[in-house]
Amino acid sequence: MQRLLMGNECIALGAIKAGVKCVCGYPGTPSTEILETVVKENPGDIYVEWSVNEKAAIEVAAGAAYSGVRTLVTMKQVGLNACADPVMCLAYIGIKGGMVLAVADDPGPISSQTEQDTRHFAAFSKLPVFDPSTPEEAYEMIQDAYEYSERYGTPVIFRPTTRICHGYTSLTPAAEIKERPQEGFVKDPRWAIFPKLSYQNHIRLEQRLPQIGADFAAYRFNQLSGQGKKGIAAGGIAYAYAQEVLNELEVDSKVLKVATPQPFPEKLAVEFLQGLEEVLVLEELDPVIERELLRVCGKYHLPTIIKGKLTQDLPFAGEYSAELVKSRLYSFFNLPSPPEPALDLPPLPLRPPVLCAGCPHRASFYAVKQAAKGQEAIFSGDIGCYTLGNAQPLDMVDTCLCMGAGITIAQGLQRANPDCYNFAFIGDSTFFHTGIPGIINAVYNETKIIVIILDNSTTAMTGHQPHPGTGRKASGEIATKIDIAGVLQAIGVKKVIKANPLELSTAVAAVQEAMAFDGVSAVIFAAPCIAISKAQPQLVITEDCTQCRKCIRELGCPAITYAEGRVAIEQSLCYGCGLCAQVCPSAAITVQEASK
User: How confident is the model at residue 462 (pLDDT cuts 50, 70, 90)?
Assistant: First the structure.
């Protein structure tokens, strides 16, 4: 049956068809729906888990792959940094069952700290890369990835970018699933990494790469077409954009599609470059294909001019679009600029990201701000919805680096600024991901910081996935619920306070108590994300309102508006959290029961 499927769904269904039996990951846009689709489409014999972090996910999958099981690990590009250690070692040790690391890159970046290009990490770790150019190709290509993984006994990286992950296509998934015998774990010295073995495996690794590159030259999704003196080389979504434009133009051009940029299909590239005067390279994000073509030109003494990012013919940063590729192709072929669509549209309004109306994080930030009022304080943030606490009027995130770093950054700030109160904000999911070691470090080194744990009972930013503190598994089954307060006490935090951030006076008092403690202290602000909690009574502004606008100036809630000289609450946005009512100096905000 034909289905309308997101790219991430295509990837998941392709892996299921290939016979994957163990799937692990950590949620991160744009990769999240891959694992969620496996949960939804699970025929019943696939083990699926949201791991506490990407390192744990890789290592769980590695154990299964050692046993001959086909495995899949999902993450976004920055997640690969968190599991660099096991990935590098697995490149040396190898695997038995096919192992695919689905690492989604985020050009833009749309929802990430970096625009890093996973192809560089693949070259660094000497692992093969598969780079699909359409969602339907992703469905087929991930099945090939398992075959190559087992053929060469190595993990492989599958690298979709945002538009592949979140694009849609009509697809008829195959009903049959590839079933494979699994002999289980067989004891062998190869599974224990030691320096001598690593040395020997390094030699094998270097010998294997050109073999894979030669194999890739004949791979079905690496394609060479067309003829002429000018050429286009492209990979990923940029290839799909280029094909759309080339189908419109009446130009002679050779086209090289690179679906496996690492190791590079050199033989196919040499055939492509023969007789070409110049080539334009289209790729997200870094000039990986471009540099490989330059290397090939030098190695074989070819006079072809290679144009792309290095020649400033294309931008280094940002996501490619069909319009960008079209304009560059018109220029490359010396054609008049393509006509602009005749649309008389008004400019789009600026819509900066904000915390949702009713978000408990707003209340937590405000409580800390009130508790620290008049004091020298530094507020270290972290990765999650609460990063948006940096926006006005809250202005409560002074630093933000990467997952779990807020707690350790605060320790460095405390050492350099001992007369300040140093706060570290971290979410519940991030606490389990990488927050715990940082707190242990603070306790061990006796560094006075105040840790504010924003526990909203979910992994909100990536789509409300469960984590160890929710008591649910990826499948929805009941799991052991890990108590954050118990963990903090067990690792030596002497002052742990739990409070509801929506009870403002109590929340402020909790923060002040933590500030007064001489050592590592923690406040757990527990209140569920409004997206998973039931609708609450809505609020209205009465005639007692003096139009002082304190609610707007200090909270920045998108449900509170000011127009035509009056403050109002937009009922369609209000969740009745009650924070504004506690802030209002005129007691002019009251509860109104939500309409049925």
Answer: confident
- Note whether residue 25 is domain-resident: yes
Mark whether 480 and 560 lie in a shared domain: no
Residue 346 lies in a domain: no
Dist. CA 71–CA 65, nearest whole Å? 6
User: Longest C-alpha distance within the chain, in Å?
Assistant: 82
Res 62 pLDDT > 90 = yes
Return the closest-CA partner of residue 301 out of 257, 270, 259, 345.
270
Kindly state whether residue 349 falls inside one of the protein's structural domains: no
Split into its structural domains, the chain has a count of 4
Co-location of 568 and 505 in the same domain:
no
Query: Interior CA angle at 425 toward 420 and 430, to 5°?
Result: 145
Q: What H or E segment, with its residue span, contains residue 538?
A: strand 538-541
Q: Which domain holds residue 259?
A: 223-332
On whether both 376 and 519 belong to a single domain, the answer is yes
- Whether 250 and 289 map to the same domain: the answer is yes
| Secondary structure (3-state) at 25 | strand
Mark whether 372 and 412 lie in a shared domain.
Answer: yes
At residue 593, the pLDDT reads: 58
Q: Which string of DSSP letters, residue by residue, matches 429-486?
A: HHIIIIIHHHHHHHHHTT---EEEEEE-SSBTTTT-B--TTTTB-TTS-B-PPPPHHH
Other Cβ atoms less than 10 A from the Cβ of 550: the count is 14
Residue 532 lies in a domain: no
The DSSP annotation for 301-315 comes to T---EEESTTTTSS-
pLDDT tens digits, 464-512? 888 988 988 888 889 999 999 999 999 999 999 999 999 999 999 999 9
Write 194-198 long-range contacts (CB < 8 A, 24+): 197/92, 198/92
| 353 closest CA partner among 314, 390, 398 | 390
CA gap 451, 427 in Å, rounded = 10
